[in-house]
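Structure tokens please, single chain.
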Amino acid sequence: RQILIVILVFAMNLRIMVFSYDVPKKELNVDVLFVIDNSMSMLAEDFDGDGRRIDAVKEDCEYIMDMMEGCRFSVIAFGNYAYRLAPYTSDTNVVMSAINSLEGQTQYYAQGTSLNQPFPLMLDVLQKDQEQNSDRVQVVYYFSDGEITNKDEKIGSYKKAREYVASGAVLGYGTEEGGKMKVR
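Here you go.
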């Protein structure tokens, strides 16, 4: 009996496992839309000392994706115009690659920032997603330094999006004093 017990204890310590490729995946019924300001002012170096604002946005997006594992993510960026970088996907590597490609606009290309710029595209994305996936909850995160540099422009209302958005946040970056910028 003692020999049998020793053999069984030895076998248990081997931790024999059967490999399976059917790994359960946690999926939530939530779509998260990142709306990111990619204007030249996001290159200002006044985040946490001398860090760039756009780099802070990248860190925050990665943090949000880690905390909301199992959701689908999409990215809209805006500067002179709004454009969609990534459709809704649960592949966070694709989303982070799209976000990491943001490096602000060059000084010769930038035409000023309008916080109204992404709204038509954002509303279109939210409406289409709601039509196709009516059972999913939509969350929007809006990242910007809040600087409107287009002359005589005031921020418009985003109320039309209210019926499509269950939750979200507006995250602001920078200081009132501003910061130095290394423009490209």
